[in-house]
Amino acid sequence: MKILSGVLILVTAFLSIKHGWEGLTIKPGEANLVTELGFGKTVVTIISILSLAVGLLVLFPSTFFAGNLVNAIIILSIMSLSLKAGNIKTALIEIPFLLMALVMIYLGHPFRK
Q1: Which of 6, 43, 52, 66 is most buried, judging by how many CB atoms fall within 10 Å of its CB?
Q2: What is the residue range of 49's domain?
Q3: How many domains does the chain have?
Q4: Are 51 and 89 in contact, with CB atoms under 8 Å apart?
Q5: Is the pLDDT of residue 14 over 80?
Q6: Please, are residues 110 and 10 in contact by the beta-carbon 8 Å criterion?
Q7: 24: pLDDT confidence band, cut at 50, 70 and 90?
Q8: Is residue 40 domain-resident?
């Protein structure tokens, strides 16, 4: 279980940092999920900074739970806004990522005491 938890931590950290960085470097007017959901530049910046923080928080045992909780909140927000915009496909795509965050909370950090 510790190996699975470690792999999930690495995947989550990589994806969070990748998506956070992409959100910060997005070009104005670029068509993507952000424009489809009607986010402004400020909201994109906040979500990107939170995603970068999640990527770092999940690496350390003391902030592991908080990082996964923030990650689950971000994913749930994206899912609900996608459903509100009528984009069911995007909401369904996010389900495995939400489950991954919840499984990580259940498994815990592999290096905790």
Answers
A1: 52
A2: 2-107
A3: 1
A4: no
A5: yes
A6: no
A7: confident
A8: yes
Question: Could you please report the per-residue DSSP string of the chain?
Answer: -HHHHHHHHHHHHHHHHHHHHHHHTPPTT--SHHHHHT--HHHHHHHHHHHHHHHHHTTSGGGHHHHHHHHHHHHHHHHHHHHHTT-HHHHHHHHHHHHHHHHHHHH--TT--
Cα R_g (the chain), whole angstroms: 14
pLDDT of res. 28: 67
Take residue 2 and report the two structure tokens written for it: 């510790």
Confidence of residue 69 (pLDDT cuts 50, 70, 90): very high
Residues 6+ apart with CB under 8 A from 63: 56, 57
Q: Are 78 and 94 in contact (CB under 8 A)?
A: yes
CA distance 107 to 5: 6
Q: What is the pLDDT of residues 30-53, one digit of tens each?
A: 656 666 777 777 888 898 999 999
- 113 is a domain residue: no
